[in-house]
Amino acid sequence: MMGLIPESTLEEILSRVDIVELISGYIPLKRIGRSYKALCPFHHEKTPSFIVNPDKQIFHCFGCSAGGNAFGFLMQHERLDFPEAIEALAKRTGVIIHEASAAERKTQNLGEQLYKIN
């Protein structure tokens, strides 16, 4: 079981993943202007409504509303939970995962508490 992972580690993993390269390993993408388009892998369709935005490093399907970043795509496509998706992308990008220290956990918990208050 994986412990709390620092936000900086998650950001580093995402900064090293090219979402176009990741998704094109699963489905064929066609370049349309600055974005890429494909048939959605999450529902049956005849007209492509699945868009990958390389500038924002996100995907969105206008047919079924699936969307997210590289973690979200792997979670949905491979049916992984969040820690498994983190591990898979960390391995793919060469990022070593270190669990958060006590101070980092305290800071993150404080941030979560402040978020709940608002």
3D architecture notes:
The chain is of the alpha+beta class and 118 residues long. It has a single domain, classed as Zinc finger, CHC2-typedomain (DNA Primase, Chain A, Alpha-Beta Complex). 45% of the residues lie in helices and 14% in strands. It contains five helices and five strands. Strands 1-2-3-4-5 form a five-stranded antiparallel sheet. A hairpin with a 5-residue loop joins strand 4 and strand 5. Helix 1 packs across helix 4 and helix 3 crosses helix 4. The chain is globular, with a radius of gyration of 16 Å.
Strand order of the largest sheet: 1-2-3-4-5
Share of residues in helices: 40-55%
**Nearest-integer average pLDDT:** 89
Distance between the termini: 31 Å
**For the report, how would you describe the main beta sheet?**
5 strands, antiparallel
Overall, the morphology is globular
Structural class: alpha+beta
Count of DSSP strands: 5
Low-confidence stretches: none
What is the rounded Rg? Answer: 16 Å
Write out the CATH superfamily name. Zinc finger, CHC2-typedomain
CATH class: Alpha Beta
Task: Please state the second-level CATH architecture.
Answer: Alpha-Beta Complex
Specify the number of helices: 5
